[in-house]
Amino acid sequence: MSKPYNHTKATLALAKASFRSIMRSPSAVVFTLAFPLVFILVFGFLGGGGVKVDLAIAPGSDLENPIIKALEEISVVHIIKDKDAADIKTGLEKGHIDALIDVQKNPSGKPAYLADIKYTSASIDKGNILKSVVHNLMYTLNTKDVMPTVAQLNESTVQGRIYRTIDFILPGQLGFSLLSTGVFGTAFVFFNLRQTLVIKRFFATPVRKSSIVFGEGIARIGFALLGAVFIILLGHFFFHFTLINGAITVLNMLLLSIIGLIVFMGFGFVVSGVAKSESTIPPISNIITLPQFLLSGTFFSIDAFPTWLQPISRALPLTYLNDAMRKVAFEGAGLWDVKHQILIMVIWGIGIYAVAVKVFKWE
Amino acid sequence: MDKTNAIISVKNLVKKYEDFTAVQGISFDVYQNEIFGLLGPNGAGKTTTLEIIETLREKTSGEITVDGYSVDKEASKIKRIIGVQLQAAGYYPNLNLVELMELFSGLYGVDIKPMEMLEKVNLQDKAKAKYKALSGGQKQRFSIATTLINSPKIIFLDEPTTGLDPQARRNLWDLIIDIRNNGTTVVLTTHYMDEAEQLCDRVAFVERGEIIALDTPDNLIDQLISSGFERKKEVKKANLEDVFINLTGKEWREDN
């Protein structure tokens, strides 16, 4: 009784205990790290490939000629040799092979070669790509030694930042990681602490309710930020994830992560209050996380969705977190530049915590 | 015992739930440094009464003071001078006993050495174990250790020996008597009359939310005998539990 009770000390003791507990909980580690990492790895390795057109060379075709040589130099075209006629026929019919080329020496001498190309209706898009590649190629080959009579075309490309798949995927995965750790983690922890009377035992000590919530929040934010740093650095060093302003960009992303996580934890509090038993937590949490996972631009840009779906996407908080993250990371936007996105997340936060205060149960 | 020195005073305590009355007008005092037992069948209102004194539950009416503090106005002061063991309470998941002790020292705002606390209840060998991995007796001992962290004036034990084997039960009795001998008042509930007779300085029988008897175990037994009661069978100088303890030994076992 000699010294006054220290609420900060109690909050920190809770944060420490909770952090230790989370680090030892397999599901927390899986959802926060393993899950997003798998997607990042998959898309990281997929990324950069672009479109490939599979072009088969007919058996018996001449191989030592400028046309085939030039086609082999073009990165879009993937040449398939050594297939027999039957394989090529079924390949074309199924669309596994996008076109067939047969080059023969011209017995009559001029032009030197005759090239037959067969496209397939099973792969019209790639056939069209090939068509323009081949037309371009023929023009270049045929006009090699001819001075243009009307106009000369000079082409060049502006050197821009390379926007890789990882630049789109990583912020989305980071957002999803925050969403699942915020919702699932918070819901399970508070539900279990309540069910096993851990919270009741806490209430027999002088600790305040706010200390319990803050302690738990600090631990979860700390854990999620560790996960975020890990994901960002892994993406940056292994898959060239763009961090325009280096450390400042990382810092801005972490601040956005905190804002997002606080909002998502609000959902977690609601779920822990609404759930009747432990087994109802995953379905309720999935109702919250899955639509955002699919509709918030985690994998695809929202612009690719049908127009009737877009308003729904634009109502979800994860959409704005993802959007802000991408702007910060790739365009080098500051937090003030994404104030619109932050504002919408804050509005979601106020709404969800208003509900949480109503439905959250301590015992 | 100095009867004027009441550390807990309960007057006309009533607790009503929507459809029934759990406690209907209980009054009693707990004296300083005694072991006070609340006895009675399940649902009699023992736990409810304890939890109201512990400031974990709101009362409907009545007056309670704990060491001079009113439960209505000074709940946080009461929490700092009491230790509480709840029936079937769990502890923070994934933490070992030392880490749980650290957590509670933070929650009570006191500096303690976790190992010393565990030694008090003979759990120093289990310092790195998780609470879930403990046996029934070890769990209860750990729970009691958490009640001692803030050097409380009073500890409350809700059915501390339920479900324990005879050795574990007797070990716990020794522990509780030690705690009392170190100057702490103990309030406990139990279903076991032999336990109450051995441990408690005074007991209160609670039935349907009312106290129907309150005295020392000796006085209550004497009253019954003077009313002409006789056991059907003459009591022998030992009972079957004595036989069990005698055969299996009284030492603290690894698993109790």
Q: How much helix is in the residues of chain A?
A: 55-70%
Oligomer: heterodimer
Number of strands of chain A: 4
Q: Kindly, what is the distance between the CA atoms of the first and last residues of chain A, rounded to a whole number of angstroms?
A: 29 Å
Largest sheet of chain B: 6 strands, mixed
> What count of structural domains of chain A?
2
Would you report the number of β strands of chain B?
Answer: 10
Q: How much of the sequence of chain A is in beta strands? A: 5-15%
Q: How are the strands ordered across the major sheet of chain B? A: 6-7-8-3-9-10
Count, helices of chain A: 13
Q: What is the third-level CATH name, the topology of the domain at 28-91 and 152-248 in chain B? A: Rossmann fold
Q: What class, by secondary structure content of chain A?
A: alpha/beta
Mean pLDDT of chain A: 84
Helices and strands of chain B, in order, run as EEEHEEHEHHHEHEHEEHH
What strand line-up does the widest sheet of chain A have? Answer: 2-1-3-4
- List the chains of the largest interface with their residue counts: A-B, 29 and 30 residues
Features:
heterodimer, A: 363 residues, alpha/beta, D-Maltodextrin-Binding Protein, domain 2, 2 domains, 13 helices, 4 strands, 6% strand, B: 256 residues, Rossmann fold, 6-stranded mixed beta sheet, 4-stranded antiparallel beta sheet, 10 strands, globular
